[in-house]
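Predicting holo structure, S-adenosylmethionine bound.
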Amino acid sequence: MFLTEVPLVYWLALGALALAWRSIYNGTKLTATFIGSLSQSKKHGSIDRYNDLHSSDSSKERNTKYEDLVSSYYDLATEFYEWGWGSSFHFADKRKGENFAAAIMRHEHFLAGRLNVAKGAKLLDCGCGIGGPARNIARFTGASVTAVTINQFQVNRGNALCKQENIADQVVLEQANFMKLPYPDNSFDAVYAIEATCHAPDRNGVYSEIYRVLKPGGNFACYEWCLTDKYDANNAFHRKVKKDIEVGDGLPDMCHTSVCTKALQKSGFKVLEARDYAEEAHAEAWFTPLTPSWNPFVWPRFQFNPIMFRMMPIILSAFEWMRLVPSGTSKTQVMLQAGGVGCQQGGLTGIFTPMWLMVGEKPRK
Ligand SMILES: C[S@@+](CC[C@H](N)C(=O)[O-])C[C@H]1O[C@@H](n2cnc3c(N)ncnc32)[C@H](O)[C@@H]1O
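Done. Tokens:
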């Protein structure tokens, strides 16, 4: 029989199988890496200490202990983030025709476009995760990127990925606190921060440090996590959503968009842009990946359906019992899932945005 005589339906079935096989293969590979990494890590035992930091209602106490709070949060969360989301740890809405990866990349390129830099420029990424955005922005702009995170585990993982992707000569991750950056004044052509400065105990502090290391005439562009005008502090549900986001995402205290814009101005920047990028026309809202789905190929949405929501902690507890993953893994997953629900509800009600876009210029004087 000639190949042309094989009915079209068989070709379609074969194609569907090949496509499904690719997702199953990729998903299994990622899960194996995830479980392998968890099984070697002893970090998840610190979940109780992390929860203690959040159990007090005092945001003042969390603000003073922010270094411990944030670094222990990312000790717990980093492997889960990479497994469920990818190597860029931020949200993005989808425009028409985009898949998840394309939307994430476009969101980063859009911010990079605000930096106004040429090939060979020196950029600083403040709060870089495992460097997904830094690698994409370095490729897009031709600039070299120094990327800082407070968490040493992320530095090690990020630099390993830079090596793997042959970009280690252009992107370097370093362990540093963006509240006291270890760089001389006027060292960078531009600075950016993606969903990271929300971890700062005080916006004035972080923006002033960024201002100090930025060369005169250089731009700083960021996406901030903020409460919007719709947030009502007298509404108990709004307060619960705020608290869920803070606990589930390692934040000391969340503030209103106006607090960030004022702090940017107060730090010396000329504010070029300050607006909610989530309000732009989109095909799919940024929080859609956090809404529940029954489709096992739609990840991470599948884990938010009512059955998986209850099953995941049980599965992970069983893994803990079999010593496949360290103790505390299940509690960590519960904490992260609650944060995901908080973000989704914050997005749906419009009281929260993870993309308050701000661009500031350091005047030449
Ligand atoms: C939500 S992640 C975003 C990471 C990255 N921008 C991305 O989009 O993939 C927040 C990052 O900020 C970093 N971070 C938080 N507080 C920090 C601090 N005080 N100094 C340096 N990095 C910090 C965390 O370690 C983490 O890497």
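Residues 24 and 297 are 8 Å apart (CA to CA).
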